[in-house]
Design goal:
Blueprint (H helix, E strand, L loop, with lengths): L1 H20 L6 E6 L13 H16 L7 E5 L3 H14 L3 E3 L5 H9 L4 E6 L3 H10 L12 E8 L2 E8 L6
Length: 170
Amino acid sequence: MLKNKMAVIVAGLGLLLSVLASPGWAADIWLFRHGEKAPGKDPALTEAGQARAQRIAGLILRAPSTGDNILLYSTDYRRTQETIAPLAEATGVKVQSYDPADMAQLAAKIRVLDGTVVVAGHSNTTPELLKHLTGIERDIPEDRFDVLYHLVPAAQGFILQELSSDTSEH
């Protein structure tokens, strides 16, 4: 009897340690950079950027992991707002603004969320948020607009999928 209790205690400690070692979130997370932009200080998307925004919305909506509880985040810049707009329109979800100068705060907020979390960012903020959430470092060159990071919760942390929005077939 004492041997069985010890086995249960040891198994319980192992489970606790694996939970503590995981990144600690239950959300399905999508991170991407805004679409192609026109020149200027706070530019709109180009036609190519608008088409990319539609493809991104389609990719996320078709993903098997995307649930009914969707949270959308974007900076206040026109290009990120326009990139996430098709997804907001398709889901009826209001886009919440975040401060691109404080990615640690956004990461802390995301860690306690459930559901599907979608974040439209920039070539510098998207990799920074990925690093805050996972410890994984990536760069997005200034001329790349197709990169999507998808963090899927898994038994031992998460699975990172690096996708492209260059085509709508994934």
